[in-house]
Structures are given as C-alpha cells and as structure tokens.
Write the structure tokens for this entry.
Amino acid sequence: MTTSHRCAPCLLVLLVAAAVGCGTDVASGQGNAGRGTADAGGGDSTTSSGAAGGEAGDSTARAGDGATGAASEAGGADAGADGAVGDAANAMGGDAEAGSEGGAGSACATALYCDNFDSYSAPGNPGGMWKTSTQARGTLSVDTTHAYSGKNAVHVTNPGAAAFERAFMSLEGAPIFPLPHDTLFGRMMIYVTRVPTSTVHWTIIQGEGSMVPGFPNITQAVYRYGGQINGNRLMSNYDTVPGGQSDCAQRSDVPVPENKWSCVEWRFDGELKELDFWLDGSIIPALSVRQKAVPAQGACQNPNWSGIWEPPTFDAIRLGWQHYQQGPGEAWIDDVAIDTKRIGCP
C-alpha cells in the first residue's frame, strides 16, 4: 500500500473541536499541574507548530457514574461498562466490524488520509504531508525493526532523562482540516516496548486547535489520549493555553499493551464535546468523555473551570510520544488513517 490522501469536500462545515492537555503552557510543553513541573529541557528540533505539553494531576479515586456513560470503576478495577455508551459510540460512523474485515486497503479507499510509511526511506523522517517535532532527546524515524504491514513503520522514542521530551509527527491544516462538524476519527497500529514505571503523564494522540469558540482568551486547546497512573494506565486529557485554566483528566485502569501490535482508534467530536477510545476494536468506556470528566475518575485541576472540555476548531493531529515528567517511552506506529467516520482496524 502506498501513501494516499483524499481531500475533504471543498465546502466544510466549521464547528467546535476538542482539546486536551495537562499544564500551564500547552504550546511550549511546560506544565505545573498536579504533580510537579514539566521542564521544556534540551534543544527543540521542532519543524511544525508548537505541540502541546503539560501534565495531568494524579488521582486514585475509582468509582463509576452510569449517568455519564463511563465505565464503573471500584477498588481500582473496571467493574464494567454502561452499555449505552458502547452502543452509542460503536454506532457512530457505521459498523466497525465491516471496517475491520475490509482491512486497511478498503478503509483507505475512502478515508481522508492513510499512510503505511512504506514509500519513505529508512532511516529518516516520514515525508508527504507529515511534519515532525522533537524536543530534548526525543527521536522519530522511519525504520524496519517492527512493521505491521509492508516493510516500514515510524519509531518514536523518549529516553526519559528530561522532564519533558517529545517525538511527534503531525498532520496540520489543509487539505484535511478544518473538518465537517469538527469531528475527527483516527486509527493507528502501535507496538509499545517501553512505558514509565512511575506516575508519569504521557501522550500518544493529540488533537488540537488555535480557536475555541466562545473563549476568545484561549489561544489553544487540546484533546489527548495517553496514560499516567503507574505509568501505563490509559487516560484521556484536556488542557488549554494560557495554562492553569482547565487541565482536566479522566482515567482508566486499562494498561497499554506492550510488545505486541495493537489497534488504537479514537473519536474527537467538537460538535458534541465528546471523546471515545477503542483498543483492538473494543471501546473502553472509562475513556469516553461526555462533555466533562466523571468526578470519580478525574476532574479539572482548576476548580474554577466549568469542567466542560471546551473543544477547539481542530487544525492538527499529532501522533507519537510526549511526556511531562522523567520516564521513558518507546513505540512503533504503522497504518495510520484519518477520516470523518469510524475506520475500523486493518
């Protein structure tokens, strides 16, 4: 499969999008929310606009709230999911099973953008529409060590010596953005080999925008998926710039799979102010956000914030690894697809 992308219709409907973060300065990656200060540390070899940084505060409370549609978590373990959330999320964008059986090729026939990275030289940055951004000792390169399909995948590493390290590849602006209904669906295959062993906040998926309708004082907002508790528990996260206004999180007890290929899918819905996350085709209800976090699973560091994860008008998606305290991260990413409906796993 070769790199391909299709432009969205010329007349796109602009609506509100989703944001994420954990810190006082999303653009620079400097954060001071909850557990310590993230240090930008080291030289910045960024070749794209500023990737958001920051850190989510720690929380160990785990109790479900079925009214919000999140999973019930008691005693630190998932006690089950509210079926209404799973049904609603799986219904969005059609039948995921059909997408999975069709494989990457059929999904890419209609998706806004697909890439399996086989058309790029290894080692080296991915080409085409990708922009790369690294900071401190973070690295990103196409290589052949692990590939889900074909011969290449993108290898991202953060050795963890600095409090803030980044290794991101990004799709920014036209022809993908802006999106109809400000809603983004994504999918990637990921092979994780290292995660922090302590409570370190890290990000693998970040949707962001520089306009937050109704909030002229906010210059950037981000929706994120990554992890934090014990270093490997998956988490959703929201933050804004200027920092300190929000810094919201919702946590799960689901660990990121290691040393195997996993299919990760996500939905950032700026119109409804919602997020969803699927792992190997199954939704994780504890990571579904319906406008604001379930109090028992997370909250906003700023108690004066409304709690609503006010979305931006999305203008970029960033994939890779970024963390905000000292702790390592390493992964390979392959078979990325971006669309306005659910894509399904290859």
